[in-house]
Task: structure prediction
Amino acid sequence: MFKGSCVALVTPFKEGSVDYDKIKELVNWHIEEGTDCIVPCGCTGEAATLTHDEHKKVIKTVIKEVDGRVKVMVGTGSNSTQETVELTEYARKKGADGALIITPYYNKPTQQGLYRHYSTVAEKVDVPICLYNVPSRTGRNMLPQTVKRLSEIPNIVALKEASGDVCQAAEIIRLCGDDITLLSGEDSLTYSLMALGGKGVVSVLANVVPGAVNDICSSYLKGDIKNSLKLHYKWLPLMDALFVETNPAPVKEALGMMGRIKPELRLPLVNLEDSNRMHLKKVMHDMGLEVV
Result:
C-alpha cells in the first residue's frame, strides 16, 4: 500500500506557532514534484514537541489539503498505548490512509511489550499501520522475530526500518516475505534496502529535493537499477549533510536557505552551529540548488 518516496514532512513554525499555511504550500509542492506519500507528525515533524491540539490540527490540515491526490500516512505513535490508540483513531476518522507508529520510547518495553502495544492498536483501530523502528531515538530495537509476529496481523502492512542495520533489514524481509512492506528509514540506505526487497523510503531528503527522491525510488521499482544507483551517489553528499546535527535542524535550515520556510525549531532543538550551516550551504550550492 505504501511505496516509493514518502516524505517525512517537517512542521514549519512561525514565532513559536505552527505555520499551517506553510504546511499547505509544502504539501502542494510535494505533490507537484511526484512525492508518493505525505508523512506528517513523525520525528522530522517534531511531533514530540507538538501539543495534542497542534498534532491533531496538523493531521487535519495535511489530509484536507492532500484531498486524496496522494497517500497520507500520519505519525500517531507515543510511549503510551492508550494515547497511540486515541491519536490513531483520530487520524482514521479524518481520512488518513495509514498510521506511522513509532516504538514506545523511554519506557523500554520488552519484545512482548512491543508486540502487545502494536497488536492492541491494530485491534482497536481499523487502519493500515506502518511500524517504525528507530532505536537510536527510542532506546529499543524491535527484532525481526517480533516484526514477523506483527506482520501476521492483517492491518499491520509496513515497517519503516531505521536501525541502520542492513543485516536486520534483510532478516525481516526473509522472515516476512510479502506479509509486510519494508521502507527505509534512512536516505543513505534506501538503495541498499530496495536491493534487498524494500519498496521505498520515508525520507528526510525528500523535504529538500522531492523530485530526486522520487526518481531514485521509481527508477529502481521500474527496473532501471543503474539510474537509481547513479542518482543515489549523486545525492549522497546531501543525504549526509542533512544529518550534520540532530534531525530536523539541518533540513529546516536547508529549507530556510531555499526560502520555503523559516528554519525555526522548538526547544530543546536549536539551530545549526555556524560551521555546520556553512558546510550544508556549500554542499547545497555544489549540488546546484539555489540558496540564499
